[in-house]
Amino acid sequence: MPIAATPSFRFVLNTIEGQDASQRILLSRTDGEPLEIRRTKVPLKGVKVTAHAVGNPPPQASPQTEATQTPWGEAHQQKTQAAETGDVWLDMEASTSLAAGRYSDAVRLATNHPEAPEIEIPFTIRVRPLIEARPAVVRMWTAPTTNASGRSGIVTLQHHGDHSFGVSSVEVSHPEIFTAVAYGKDPSTQQSIRTALVEGLDAATLGASFEGWIRVTTDDPEKPILEIPVLVAPTRTLSRRPVDGRR
Which of 8, 72, 226, 230 would be 216's cystine partner, CB 3.0–4.6 Å? Predict the structure, then answer.
């Protein structure tokens, strides 16, 4: 590889909705010549990449993050990497404007290396919702099952900013079809909402599958309203169809 990257040839950023995040990697030419980054191009709005040449004498080693896989995603621990004159620091910054979701693409760079005039560095940015609904989509069905689980369920709201919040109100798009009620009144980092089909609703009354929503109003000024998609179907099989869960 004409150009080496430390700690890896990839950016991986994890953050929470409304919070920024940054990471840097160190680039160097493997032939020992000074590296120049002549142009950077980022295809994602809200993400900035800047290149900083290491001068003479080189600065002290910079603390970097090292990714470790956990059941909740990647955790990052600091480690130290040394920079030499002629290397280039490449910094990626994700702004607070990024909506919750997963973003994957690549940064395009123009360099002074004759064998690598253009290179791409992949990146993955994961932005978790400030308040996340689990499940992200409520699915209910009218057909009876062994434990009748399709007619009701629990939605858990988790605050990833570790702040306590309260649920001020809950409304549904089709109160004649399903209901939603918040559990508890005290502020907490986690709240629960019970959903259920109205009594007596069957497949004949429902007819075809339809989509609706549950709108939750909270006392968190950064996330005052949360909408949870709902799919109600005559059978469990029909309730498994894809739903646009972006709210």
Answer: 226
Lowest-confidence segment of 35-44, 79-88, 192-201 by average pLDDT: 79-88
Which two structure tokens, joined as six digits, stand for 67? 């990714």
Residue 131 neighbours by CB distance under 10 Å:
26
SS3 content of the chain, % helix, strand, coil (to 5): 5, 55, 40
Predicted structure pTM score: 0.76
Q: Which of 1, 89, 2 is nearest to 37 (CA)?
A: 89
Reported confidence tier of residue 150, pLDDT bands at 50, 70, 90:
confident
The secondary structure of residue 151, as a DSSP letter, is: G
Q: Give 113 or 143, the one with higher predicted confidence.
A: 113
**Phi/psi at 206 (5° precision):** -70, -45
Summarize pLDDT for 195-205 with one digit per residue, the tens: 999 998 988 88
CB atoms near residue 19 (< 10 Å) = 16
CA distances from 215 to 29, 156, 197, 224 (A): 54, 14, 16, 10
Is the CB of residue 29 less than 8 Å from the CB of residue 5?
Answer: no
d(CA 43, CA 37): 17
CB 123 within 8 A of CB 10: yes
Cα dihedral across residues 111, 55, 66, 99: positive or negative: negative
Strand partners, 184: none
State whether the Cα torsion 180-183-187-188 is positive or negative.
negative
Tell me if 184 sits within 8 A of 235, measured CB to CB: no
Q: What is the bridge-based pairing of β-strands 210-218 and 190-197?
A: unpaired
